[in-house]
Design brief:
The protein is built from seven helices and nine strands, in the order αβαβααβαβββαβββα. By secondary structure, the chain is an alpha/beta fold. The strands form four sheets. It has a three-stranded parallel sheet with strand order 3-4-9. A two-stranded parallel ribbon has the order 1-2. Strands 5-6 form a two-stranded antiparallel sheet. Helix 3 packs across helix 4. The longest helix is centred in the first third of the chain and has 22 residues. The chain is globular and about 40 Å long. The relative contact order is 0.12.
């Protein structure tokens, strides 16, 4: 963590916490039942660990983005979403999936919400993310089409071929790409190209 923070500071990269379920062996991609109090404590613990290293380097915490299966649990279940967000510092934005219980819980608690899109994750017909325990490879032309559709049309083609609307409203947008996806660097470069094209088109 110290090395990562030092490198991010050197290259002016914003740093966020990515807390998940206490599932080290499964990398946070297996569902675990926790009480609301346990969810809150788990987030305080994980975010606090990163915050300690950031404070030592004089670097602010930019955002919190829940990880893995916890993210999906929060999308579906309001009580889980609220319990997790109770552990997030009130002045720190939270990244999440718009139109889900994550958005509602963030708004109810007065947290700043950023809508997330995905460069290397597919969506189901109900607008939820299809979480793979092990990431699959993507063709770069598919990444380009996937990201472009989300940014330009605020919709996405689901795994069953249907088109799902993404209600991102006027929220700031972040696009997630995973470091454990095969060919992740090329996925990130392709995603960044689409973002730059979008921002140039809209004079941003």
């Amino acid at each position: 963590m110290m090395e990562t923070i030092s490198n991010c500071k050197k290259h002016n990269i914003k740093i966020g916490a990515h807390p998940g379920l206490p599932d080290i062996q499964g990398f946070g991609r297996r569902e675990i039942k926790l009480s609301p109090e346990e969810h809150t404590a788990n987030i305080i613990y994980q975010v606090g660990a990163l915050k300690g290293f950031l404070d030592a380097e004089g670097v602010p915490l930019h955002h919190v983005k829940p990880h893995g299966v916890l993210y999906g649990m929060m999308c579906r279940d309001y009580d889980t979403a609220r319990a997790v967000m109770e552990g997030i510092p009130k002045d720190v934005p939270v990244f999440g999936l718009a139109g889900t219980q994550m958005e509602k819980a963030a708004n109810d608690l007065g947290l700043k919400f950023w809508a997330e899109m995905y460069g290397d994750v597919k969506y189901s017909k109900d607008g939820m993310l299809v979480i793979d325990r092990k990431k699959k490879a993507w063709a770069l032309e598919d990444v380009r089409e996937h990201v472009s559709q989300q940014l330009n049309s605020q919709c996405v083609t689901a795994t069953d071929g249907s088109v799902v609307q993404l209600p991102v409203k006027d929220y700031p947008i972040s696009i997630c790409c995973h470091s454990d996806s095969p060919g992740c660097l090329e996925i990130i470069k392709t995603t960044k190209e689409v973002i730059d094209e979008f921002n140039m088109k809209h004079n941003r």
